[in-house]
Write a structure and sequence with these properties.
It contains 22 helices and 27 strands. It is an alpha/beta fold. It is globular. The structure holds NADP nicotinamide-adenine-dinucleotide phosphate and iron/sulfur cluster. The site of iron/sulfur cluster has 14 residues, from α10.
Length: about 675
């Protein structure tokens, strides 16, 4: 049997789960709809895909504990029917599902939010109100009421959210708990709220209801928990009646990335292993685990009892089924980009997945077998063209994919060169392998001619983009970002024109020496100041970034902060990385000329030379439409997708989604 540890059953209190894979808690944005059907379909598909246990996104035990006004809750009997539809769908598909009870405390984006002490969080505009002693009691009773309703709604258990800096976590540390009553002061008092939350649920629901407690292993904030405190809490949580400890890494306000793609894989598993060695309760490892091989290794080493993966189940609902069938190579990889999931959530949009546009849209985007198989010619083997080929071939169409270059992948092949974006290798590998498996006829180093296109029933043009050239004096002296990322020699001082996603990526590439910290855990920990909570409370130490490999100046014409348009949940990481490497960031720049000595600019009317040995242009893109224009002129009807359709704000998410949506409709 493949993955003998990962796929072996485990008993947690009243439940025996068929394997050790947990689909971790993730808000999808479908929880707030009036119609439960889309959320039920989303979870049902994951249950059918074989995951051992699903944990829902955070469900609030009361209105002021919700992550934002109107966010999903279970604090009225009227909410139960919605949840019952979800649990029925999961059970009908052979799955198990626990509901996460999430009280956000001072992280609630809610006027009138509450917390142990009135200390505003740096990531919320709302200062919390300090609870009275009796009110703390009442909040904890709301946890119990939510758990009772969860059982009525058919859930197999609850997860009590005690990590990530949410309400219960806020009691644990002096950073946010300045109380002097029974809920504050010495650690025995500070841990009373989380322990009581569990104990009261256990008392109210009896022994036969699964309780998971999510414990913070490393807070990554000043004055966070010590390791001794983590262990003390784990023991008390066991005594209070929990069956299993899920693990949490870092508070949301931490200035250390914990799940971004640049975080090395399995970066925090050593802490789960340390907790497991205490032999208190079964331990679930989490964060940056995205393949069955990695998960199996962790279990085989005895570092954890179960593995929680959240985003990988957006990327592929059949993660477990494919692993069990010996088809792990077919699992669509989560590249930890956050672009279509967390960035959407934080923008108030439903979560989906860059790699899998069906995620969260199971009812509206279907890849049904084609009634009449067609011959489909696709021109361009970048993200849009490849995804169109995969979906069209999945549906039974006969697909020819023409690529002028010598390999598939397009812009994804540039992204994978950027330090911290190594996961793109896996994405290119997966799409290429799927195209081969599905029998797509790939024509590399081939420019499709009109006869090729005329033979097809449908023609898809996905010829992508070209880096924008600039119309300023000396522009021909500069390199494009594509040339740089393909390995063109670059001097010691570099001026980068354009500070969008690619300008930041190129700057990162230029300041990083040969070895990417994302591939070396100790190096990455040093760069970000991640220590050991057994030595420093909270696990924070002084960051020691390597010296920059080059002196880089990054420029944009807009005024205002550079990187404003970067991902909501990852932009701060990119900015912090470049700041740590001493990258000079200039806004409000007017480019006058590129000379042998660098770039002549004006800023606020003052002329200045940015001395540089190399100038790199990252000033966006223009569509490559020559094939489309020729085909249209010859009277052909074509579908144009990806960068060829619209270059502005093109990213892999849009390209892939557009390719999939078109191919689903042909
Ligand atoms: P972009 O984000 O549109 O940025 C283009 C940059 O070039 C801007 O800084 C713009 O700033 C500048 N620019 C535009 N026209 C110019 C001109 N004529 N002369 C001089 N400067 C000019 O495009 P991109 O950086 O090429 O990225 C392409 C897409 O990929 C974007 O949608 C981006 O979000 C996405 N991407 C995302 C990530 C990620 O990590 N999520 C990473 C890479 C790329 P000014 O106009 O102010 O000068
Ligand atoms: Fe993973 Fe990116 Fe998909 Fe989110 S959008 S699930 S991070 S691949």
């Amino acid at each position: 049997m493949p993955y003998p540890n990962l796929l072996s059953p485990i008993t947690l209190g009243p439940l025996t789960l068929k394997n050790r894979v947990v689909m971790g808690s993730m808000h999808t944005g479908l929880e707030e709809g009036h119609d439960p059907a889309p959320l039920a379909a989303f979870y049902a598909q994951r249950a059918a895909g074989g995951v051992g246990l699903i944990v829902t996104g955070g469900i609030a035990p009361n209105a002021h504990g919700a992550v934002y006004t109107g966010a999903a809750g279970l604090f009225s009997d009227a909410h139960i029917a919605f949840h019952r539809t979800v649990t029925d769908a999961v059970h009908q598909n052979g799955g198990r599902i626990a509901m996460q009870i999430l009280h956000a405390g001072r992280y609630a984006y809610v006027q009138g939010c509450v917390a142990p002490s009135p200390i505003k969080s740096p990531i919320s505009p709302f200062a919390p109100r300090e609870l009275t002693s009796d009110e703390v009691d009442a909040e904890l009773n709301d946890f119990t009421a939510a758990a009772l309703r969860a059982r009525q709604a058919g859930y197999d258990g609850v997860e009590v959210m005690g990590s990530e800096g949410y309400f219960l976590n806020q009691f644990l540390v002096t950073h946010t708990n300045k109380r002097s009553d029974a809920w504050g002061g010495p650690y025995a008092n500070r841990m009373r709220a989380p322990v009581q939350a569990v104990a009261r649920i256990r008392a109210a629901l009896g022994p036969d209801f699964l309780i998971i407690y999510r414990i913070s292993l490393i807070d990554l904030i000043p004055n966070g928990s010590t390791w001794d405190e983590v262990v003390t809490l784990a023991r008390a949580i066991k005594d209070a009646g929990a069956h299993v400890l899920n693990t949490g890494i870092g508070w949301h306000e931490a200035r250390v990335p914990t799940i971004a793609t640049s975080v090395p894989r399995a970066a925090f598993v050593h802490l789960a292993a340390r907790l497991k060695a205490e032999n208190i309760l079964p331990v679930i490892a989490t964060n940056r685990i995205n393949t069955p091989d990695l998960a199996e290794d962790i279990l085989a080493r005895g570092d954890a009892d179960m593995i929680s993966m959240a985003r990988p189940f957006l990327a592929d609902a059949d993660f477990v089924a494919k692993a069990a069938a010996g088809q792990a190579a077919q699992i669509a990889p989560c590249i930890a980009c956050n672009q279509a999931c967390l960035d959407h959530t934080f923008s108030g949009k439903p979560a989906t997945c860059l790699v899998n546009p069906r995620a969260g849209r199971e009812l509206s985007l279907r890849y049904t077998p084609a009634a009449t198989p067609k011959r489909i010619a696709i021109v361009g083997g970048g993200a849009a063209g490849m995804m169109a080929a995969i979906v069209a071939a999945t549906r039974g169409h006969r697909v020819d994919l023409y690529e002028a270059g010598s390999e598939l992948g397009g812009q994804l092949n540039l992204a994978k060169q950027v330090p911290g974006k190594e996961e793109f290798h896996g994405l290119v590998h997966w799409v290429t392998a799927e195209i081969a498996r599905l029998g797509v006829a790939v024509h590399l180093s081939t420019r499709a001619d009109l006869d090729d296109l005329r033979r097809a029933d449908e023609v898809i043009i996905a010829t992508g983009i070209a880096p924008r050239r600039l119309d300023i004096e000396g522009a021909d002296r500069a390199l494009t970002y594509a040339e740089v990322l393909r390995g063109a020699p670059v001097g010691a001082r570099v001026a980068v024109i354009g500070a969008g996603g690619i300008g930041f990526d190129v700057a990162e590439y230029l300041v990083t020496a040969a070895h990417s910290p994302s591939r070396d855990l100790a190096h990455w920990q040093r760069e970000w100041g991640v220590g050991d909570p057994a030595v420093q409370a909270g696990g924070l130490i002084l960051p020691q970034p390597d010296a920059a490999a080059r002196k880089v100046t990054l420029m944009q014409r807009k005024t205002g902060k550079l990187g404003r348009g970067l991902g909501k949940t990852t932009g701060w990481i990119h900015r912090a990385q470049l700041q740590a490497k001493g990258v000079e960031m200039l806004a409000g720049v007017e480019y006058r000329a590129i000379t042998q000595r660098g770039v002549l600019i004006a800023q606020g009317g003052v002329q200045r030379l940015i001395e540089a040995d190399t100038v790199v242009i990252c000033a966006g893109q223009t569509s490559q439409r020559d094939v489309a224009d020729r085909a249209i002129a010859a009277g052909l009807t074509v579908h144009i997708i990806g960068g060829a359709d619209r270059a502005a704000e093109l990213d892999a998410q849009r390209a892939i989604a557009q390719g999939a949506e078109l191919a689903a409709a042909l």
